[in-house]
Amino acid sequence: MAASNRLGEKIRAFCLSCEGERNCEIKGYHPERGSEADGMYQWAVDWFLLSCCGCDHVFAQTVSSNSEDINYYYDRDGQEATEHIESIDTWPARSKRDAPEWFKHDSVETDLQDTRALDASVVSRKW
Question: How far apart are CA 50 and CA 121, in angstroms?
Fold first, then answer.
């Protein structure tokens, strides 16, 4: 599919701002394909610039696969079938875990007189 044909299309992706899977509009798309070892190894990376339809947060995402990462299974008719395993990465990166409850506060407690820089870092932090 041509790159320009994907613009405006909606796909599901994890929005860091909404903290969940959301419908996102494709604002930019760039496919990359290649092979190595005389075509024995093939790879593909689809680059997306996405805008969350819920909060308008803009982020980048890649969906990559290669000829080595394949899932083998049997279909409904008992025939062997395959599908490529896709790896999805986003920027900014999705957090590995939620912030602990004890750390969710709006200020930093300290004996320092000037805490503006510390307070600003806590308020702007997204886990």
Answer: 26
- Judged against a pLDDT cut of 80, whether residue 87 lies above it is answered with yes
For residue 127, the enclosing domain spans: 98-127
pLDDT of residue 125: 47
Kindly report, residue by residue over 43-60, the tens digit of the pLDDT: 999 999 999 999 999 999
Read off the tokens for 61.
């995402």
- The reply to whether 127 and 69 lie within a common domain is no
Residue 6's φ and ψ, nearest 5 degrees, are -85, -20
- The whole-model pTM stands at 0.66
86, 25: one domain: yes
